[in-house]
Amino acid sequence: MINKHSPLPIYYQLEQGIKEMIEKGQLKPGEMIPSERELAETYDISRMTVRQAINNLVNDGYLVRKRGKGTFVAATKIEQPLKGLTSFSEDMRARGMEPGTKVLDFNIVPASAALAQLLDVREGADLYEIRRVRLADGLPMALETSYIPCSIVPDLTREIVSGSVYEFIEKDVGLSIRSAVQVLEASVARKMEAELLQVKEGAPVLLLQRRSYLDDGRPLEVVKSVYRGDRYKFTIEMERSK
Amino acid sequence: MINKHSPLPIYYQLEQGIKEMIEKGQLKPGEMIPSERELAETYDISRMTVRQAINNLVNDGYLVRKRGKGTFVAATKIEQPLKGLTSFSEDMRARGMEPGTKVLDFNIVPASAALAQLLDVREGADLYEIRRVRLADGLPMALETSYIPCSIVPDLTREIVSGSVYEFIEKDVGLSIRSAVQVLEASVARKMEAELLQVKEGAPVLLLQRRSYLDDGRPLEVVKSVYRGDRYKFTIEMERSK
DNA sequence: AATATATAGTGGTCTAGACAACTAGATAAC
DNA sequence: GTTATCTAGTTGTCTAGACCACTATATATT
């Protein structure tokens, strides 16, 4: 595994060797690797050199050190392509429920001053206004009102809107969403909302406003949602970007 | 800058010292820092110890090494130290309000099965249980109950807890938080909560549960908070990691 | 049986060197 | 002048130890 006369640094050879064993499954998650002293003796190198190799693998998330116990293969990294940036449909499927949609309204309306600012269009510009009841396993989960500039997605139809708009935009229009800002807030259901969500007036609801941005930075959409407080929890993972 | 008899490791002291100089602007982007040998001689420590400090700062993006030339302060470190991963105190200050704290309870309790699993400790292990009313500009904003393994932060006191625990942990204990998982949910205030938050029973509240992880992956803390729905909105920015 | 205490093994920190690889500038040779 | 060479200074790699802090287990002690 280690060739002392290779031009490659020893720590690097060891690092790659261990990484390979992890990727090939010869070292499994949770398994302890040989101790630093043992590795040093095995390959007749200094412990500090072993540490340099292990340090790199720890930084890359392959290994986890536990003082007094040993060094272990890290639990498999979770792949999260768009951490929390899921559409309603994806969100529900991830929760093991079948998403559904009932379109209440599908209109083209002029942008109000507030919406114009949020979507970066002129006041009065054409916007789709889409009001939908979102279902999970057939039961109402949320009430959604979204606004999208007609200029960005010219050929939206009521049919498309009864499915996943995001999927349409990514697959057929060829635009992709890069980022979003969400604001969450607790409230209670008003009469109209309560009826549509099939809960009692005054029941807890989660208000969610999301603004999505395209890859080029243009705002794509503003969505205001009212989620049933008894059925929906919003989970978000945050990580310090190194 | 370096105290050899401090319980804090030498490399850490040096690391913090350099980081501070960068953050205060005493070392400017592009500027070369003293060479490793020079630092070692100045503080009468080993060069390997200096390297450990510098390595960490390079990994964190504060410094850039250039072989044969020197080590330089990195160009504009992107400021997103903990996007959304802020403590209550930071959160309130960012909103232009002055944070405050009233400690209701500060006990050591045995870990329940559920908490033991969340915090990765044995059932029955000692945990701090900290119950606090969090104030913003003197008015109640949230009710917080947090659990921290005593094994990780052995010397927590009621005094510390009346300020920012995160700041204490980062600055004095020398641990830093890498990631967190938060779950948000809408609910209504129960009687006890309503009294402490000074709202009516049944008023909307935002329930927030956060689990924080340290750099080494160990869970540090589980916090369950009840925020006043009329005063608090939770904002989160999400970005597709390329 | 419950509780201290020792012990072996682990990673964490640190030393005082060494030589290699690289950069930049000064100096010498052409 | 141009080119090659030397030289001082830098980071990169590596050694062979040392002691500390922590964990788990085995062993006395009570």
Write the layout of secondary structure elements.
2 copies of one chain form a homodimer.
Chain A: H1 10-23, E1 32-33, H2 36-42, H3 47-59, E2 63-66, E3 70-73, H4 88-94, E4 99-110, H5 113-119, E5 126-136, E6 139-149, H6 158-161, H7 165-173, E7 177-188, H8 191-197, E8 204-214, E9 219-228, E10 234-239
Antiparallel strand pairs in A: 1-3, 2-3, 4-5, 5-6, 6-9, 7-8, 8-9
Helix pairs in contact in A: 1-3, 2-3
Chain A binds a DNA duplex (30 and 30 nucleotides) through α3.
Keywords (chains A, B): DNA-binding, Transcription, Transcription regulation
InterPro entries (chains A, B): Bact_HTH_transcr_reg, Chorismate_lyase_/UTRA_dom_sf, Tscrpt_reg_HTH_GntR, UTRA, WH-like_DNA-bd_sf, WH_DNA-bd_sf
GO molecular function, one term (chains A, B): DNA-binding transcription factor activity
Key features?
homodimer, 242 residues, alpha+beta, Arc Repressor Mutant, subunit A, Chorismate lyase, 2 domains, six-stranded antiparallel sheet, three-stranded antiparallel sheet, 8 helices, DNA-binding
Q: How would you describe what is shown here?
A:
Chains A, B: This is Transcriptional regulator, GntR family. Chains A, B: It comes from Parageobacillus thermantarcticus. Chains A, B: Residues 8-76 form the HTH gntR-type domain. Chains A, B: InterPro entries: Bact_HTH_transcr_reg, Chorismate_lyase_/UTRA_dom_sf, Tscrpt_reg_HTH_GntR, UTRA, WH-like_DNA-bd_sf, WH_DNA-bd_sf. Chains A, B: Keywords: DNA-binding, Transcription, Transcription regulation. 2 copies of one chain form a homodimer. The first copy, chain A, is α+β, with helices and mostly antiparallel strands and 242 residues long. Chain A folds into 2 domains: 10-73, Arc Repressor Mutant, subunit A, CATH 1.10.10; 78-235, Chorismate lyase (3-Layer(aba) Sandwich), CATH 3.40.1410. Helices cover 28% and strands 34% of the residues of chain A. Chain A is built from 8 helices and 10 strands. In chain A, the strands form 2 sheets. A 6-stranded antiparallel β-sheet of chain A has the order 4-5-6-9-8-7. In chain A, strands 1-3-2 form a 3-stranded antiparallel β-sheet. Chain A is elongated, with a radius of gyration of 26 Å. The model of chain A is unreliable at 77-82 (pLDDT under 50). Chain A binds chain B through residues 48, 59, 64-65, 74, 80-85, 176-188, 202, 204-207, 227, 229, 232-242, and chain B through 48, 59-61, 78, 80-85, 176-188, 202, 204-207, 216-217, 227, 229, 232-241. The structure holds a DNA duplex (30 and 30 nucleotides).
